[in-house]
């Protein structure tokens, strides 16, 4: 059985927990006004998060990806004097209680500027800081190790073997609170499912399998043959996967608005022996999830379990 989730933004709700400000806006303000602005944005994001999580529970959605910008400019020097973790400790506690009490699995996907295998030390340092911020948010919420941080291997930089090795070397530098949450996903241009799987097995970290990325970039492997190994990387944690449908034959890498029900049924049929969480990466977000459920119900397909994390 599987559970479905979506990423970051609800198209059904007016407000989402991704409000932000810019460095340019903050630099126009005096220090106290700057802090007031940052606090205002984060407080709004907490209000919106609680509304969104309540909406998710009402709609039996127990898997959700938190926007990376939840804490505005958390790793930027412009916010260096702001102890957001201390100031909002009560809010983190209350949000965490709601998440845990309702069995919601919260995950994150740090931005594409975070590249752990970069050949530029400054980028690696910024990546470690970004990963650490995400892990800190989940730690403050009191979430278990099912709340993972998804990353890609990164760039090829002209030499795959060296790039994979650099990822492994830099992974060893990560703080333990990041290591225990970081998981690696196959991408659509650089590193195939098999290459990512072998890296994950080497490092002892879970692999997130993305079906669409595999269709975009592979060496012709049948992903189902690798499924037991992918599942094994998760140990006692619930495996997490991603699915999206291509926008068109011409724009194959782009995500469609919704999920192709036939493709979805084929995908989950191969997962019948496993309990897997699947994030749907569609332009229509939660609306696409609810639409897919409607199609499945009409066809008499019963594959989704509406349950909390055990």
From TrEMBL:
<keyword id="KW-0378">Hydrolase</keyword>
<dbReference type="GO" id="GO:0009411">
    <property type="term" value="P:response to UV"/>
</dbReference>
<dbReference type="InterPro" id="IPR004601">
    <property type="entry name" value="UvdE"/>
</dbReference>
<dbReference type="Pfam" id="PF03851">
    <property type="entry name" value="UvdE"/>
</dbReference>
<keyword id="KW-0255">Endonuclease</keyword>
<dbReference type="GO" id="GO:0006289">
    <property type="term" value="P:nucleotide-excision repair"/>
</dbReference>
<protein>
    <submittedName>
        <fullName>UV DNA damage repair endonuclease UvsE</fullName>
    </submittedName>
</protein>
<keyword id="KW-0234">DNA repair</keyword>
<keyword id="KW-0227">DNA damage</keyword>
<keyword id="KW-0540">Nuclease</keyword>
<dbReference type="InterPro" id="IPR036237">
    <property type="entry name" value="Xyl_isomerase-like_sf"/>
</dbReference>
<keyword id="KW-0228">DNA excision</keyword>
<dbReference type="GO" id="GO:0004519">
    <property type="term" value="F:endonuclease activity"/>
</dbReference>
<dbReference type="GO" id="GO:0016787">
    <property type="term" value="F:hydrolase activity"/>
</dbReference>
């Amino acid at each position: 059985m599987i559970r479905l989730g979506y990423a970051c933004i609800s198209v059904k709700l007016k407000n989402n927990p991704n409000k932000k400000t810019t460095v340019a806006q903050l630099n126009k303000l005096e220090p106290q006004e700057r802090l007031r602005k940052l606090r205002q944005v984060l407080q709004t994001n907490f209000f919106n998060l609680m509304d969104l999580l309540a909406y998710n529970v009402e709609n039996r959605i127990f898997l959700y990806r938190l926007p990376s910008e939840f804490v505005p400019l958390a790793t930027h020097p412009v916010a260096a004097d702001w102890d957001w973790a201390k100031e909002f400790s009560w809010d983190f506690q209350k949000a965490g209680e709601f998440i845990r009490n309702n069995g919601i699995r919260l995950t994150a996907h740090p931005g594409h500027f975070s590249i752990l295998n970069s050949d530029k030390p400054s980028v690696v340092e910024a990546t470690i800081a970004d990963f650490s911020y995400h892990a800190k948010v989940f730690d403050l919420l009191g979430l278990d190790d099912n709340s993972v941080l998804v990353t890609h291997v990164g760039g090829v930089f002209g030499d795959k073997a060296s790039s994979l090795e650099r990822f492994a070397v830099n992974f060893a530098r990560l703080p333990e609170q990041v290591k225990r949450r970081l998981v690696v996903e196959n991408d659509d241009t650089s590193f195939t499912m098999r290459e990512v799987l072998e890296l994950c097995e080497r490092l002892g970290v879970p692999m997130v399998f993305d079906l669409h990325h595999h269709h975009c970039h592979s060496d012709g492997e049948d992903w189902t043959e690798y499924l037991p190994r992918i599942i094994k990387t998760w140990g006692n944690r619930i495996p997490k996967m991603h699915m999206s449908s291509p926008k068109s034959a011409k724009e194959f890498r782009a995500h469609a608005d919704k999920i192709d029900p036939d493709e979805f049924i084929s995908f989950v049929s191969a997962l019948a022996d496993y309990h897997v969480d699947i994030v749907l990466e569609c332009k229509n977000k939660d609306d696409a999830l609810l639409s897919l459920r409607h199609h499945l119900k009409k066809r008499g397909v019963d594959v989704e379990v509406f349950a909390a994390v055990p």
